[in-house]
Design a protein that fits this description.
255 residues, alpha/beta, Rossmann fold, nine-stranded mixed sheet, 23% strand
Length: 255
């Protein structure tokens, strides 16, 4: 029987996650397709509501997107060529030697990496690509960024799960037992109104944890500060996240 236990910080509020999480640049998918042995099948593990999965379908004939949270899968973006499944990353259910690319976006720090890497080796075609992808702490243009950074690190900083440090470190501390490759510097960039930024912040697990611990949502008072400093709430501002990747190819050995 498959072990279905996993650290679930995101099933609650899956609709908000789908609505407010940023999307990845298409250049990321172009580069991943370039280093894959073919573009027949990509597996997107820990897919959430499909932010990366739908982009992979722009370059891969088939995309299987899995997440351990059924609630996340229920909110996933439909897209031709993408098949969503509720499954652990460590137990994909795919055939041996069938996959050209395995991605884990913003989720590798939740996995049992030893088991996951074993699954990757099982399903990977020779020279298949693997990418652990994470975006770091957001930055907002102008003076408002100082306010956002203070809220992230000081106000809700103590309430982030311990695994969050891997995101802040760009996954450099994670084990990655594959032939690693250099990758172009990339970032996520959006133009957001105040409501977009606030909606994104409601998806943070640390906000949920702080609300439970304190008995009050820290975003309530923070929203007032945001509104005062933002100015016209309908005027968009540039928001960016640096992308960090551990990318490599899976060498298949036969004994």
């Amino acid at each position: 029987m498959t072990d279905t236990h996993f650290k679930d910080h995101f099933s609650t509020g899956s609709a908000s996650y789908a609505a407010h999480r940023p999307t990845y640049p298409l250049q990321l998918v172009d580069e991943l397709a370039r280093i894959s042995p073919s573009t027949q099948l990509a597996l997107d593990c820990g897919c959430g509501t499909g932010q990366l999965s739908v982009l992979l379908a722009e370059r891969f004939a088939r995309v299987v997107a899995t997440d351990a949270s059924a609630a996340q899968i229920e909110q996933a973006q439909p897209r031709q060529g993408v098949t969503y499944r509720t499954a652990l990353a460590e137990d994909s259910g795919l055939p041996d030697a069938s996959v050209d690319l395995v991605t884990v976006a913003q989720a590798a720090h939740w996995l049992d990496l030893d088991k996951f890497y074993g699954e990757v080796r099982r399903i990977a075609r020779p020279d298949a690509a693997i990418a652990l992808i994470t975006y770091g702490v957001l930055h907002v243009e102008g003076e408002i960024d100082e306010l956002v950074q203070h809220f992230y690190y000081k106000v809700i900083g103590p309430y982030w799960p311990a695994e969050r440090r891997h995101v802040e470190e760009g996954y450099r501390g994670l084990d990655f037992p594959f032939q690693e490759r250099a990758f172009p510097a990339l970032e996520i960039e959006v133009s957001w109104k105040l409501a977009d930024l606030f909606g994104y912040m409601t998806t943070w697990s640390a906000v949920k944890a702080a609300t439970k611990a304190l008995g009050t949502n820290p975003l309530v008072s923070f929203e007032a500060q945001l509104r005062e400093q933002w100015g016209n709430a309908e005027e968009p501002k540039r928001v960016t996240w640096p992308l960090s990747l551990r990318v490599g190819n899976v060498a298949i050995t036969t004994e």
